[in-house]
Automatic annotation (TrEMBL):
Coiled coil: none annotated. Residues 1-13 have a biased composition (Basic and acidic residues). This is Uncharacterized SAM-binding protein YcdF (DUF218 family). Residues 1-24, 225-244 are annotated as: Disordered.
């Protein structure tokens, strides 16, 4: 007895049951695709690096700014000089120098600044010794601003360091208005960074750190976006209103 499926005479005449032809699909990650993806990614990274570097080259200290507090991130005498000048000019009520070596005091800082700054350093200036990096600077500045009840800050640091500093600080204190005040290193030529090896290497290293900081903050943010833009715009608007 035939217990299997029966085929009609017409089917048997047609021969064995035909199977649908299988089309061969090219592999998704073929060599050509990978080369294209790598070239595209390299071009995108190069474009973003040029955008970042040109943005740094265009940074300049704003005029007529004013805030409740001033924060200088250590890393060069020009940053301290710029912050002390702002404090002396009444642009802020108090100054925090963040990231100071615990072994360094006001007298040592005064020796590295231009002119006799000891009187100002002994006044409305606080030294922060806890920060070891830019993330630590952001935490230290946040705690200092909360302690003093400040809702607006002028941030003083080097021009190449400003983009990363602003996103770290904005991430630590999203409700505080931040006004960037970039200072330039006279030994570096950022306006023609592509012609100078030292400037190019510095910008490349800073770009990597900046990109990693953006990625980390994007993951930590509940909305998956870095919170740097809003505080900067609100700070700029406030500074313009105060200047009027």
């Amino acid at each position: 007895m035939d217990l299997g499926s029966r085929r009609s005479g017409k089917d048997r005449a047609a021969g064995p049951a035909s199977r649908p032809a299988q089309t061969r699909r090219p592999p998704l990650f073929s060599g050509r695709f990978l080369v294209f993806a790598l070239v595209f990614l390299a071009g995108l990274t190069l474009f973003d690096f040029v955008r970042f570097s040109d943005g740094v080259a265009r940074l300049a200290p704003p005029a007529g700014i004013k805030a409740e507090g001033i924060v200088a991130l250590t890393g060069g005498a020009a940053r301290i000089d710029g912050a002390l000048a702002l404090l002396a000019d009444g642009r802020g009520e108090r100054l925090l120098i963040s990231g100071v070596n615990p072994a360094v005091g006001r007298r040592e800082i005064a020796k590295k600044t231009a002119g006799d700054q000891m009187r100002i350093l002994n006044g409305d200036v606080d030294l922060g010794h806890a920060a070891r990096d830019t993330i630590g600077n952001a935490d230290e500045a946040r705690d200092w601003a909360m302690k003093n009840g400040f809702r607006s800050l002028i941030i003083v640091t080097s021009d190449y360091h400003m983009p990363r500093s602003m996103i770290e600080l904005a991430g630590a204190m999203p409700d505080t208005a931040l006004i960037p005040y970039p200072v330039s290193n006279p030994q570096l030529d950022m306006t023609r960074w592509w012609r100078h090896t030292a400037s190019l290497k510095l910008l490349m290293a800073e770009y990597v750190k900046y990109t990693l900081a953006r990625a980390r903050l994007a993951v930590e943010s509940p909305w998956g976006a870095t919170p740097a833009a809003t505080p900067v715009r609100s700070a700029a608007a406030k500074a313009e209103a105060d200047a009027r």
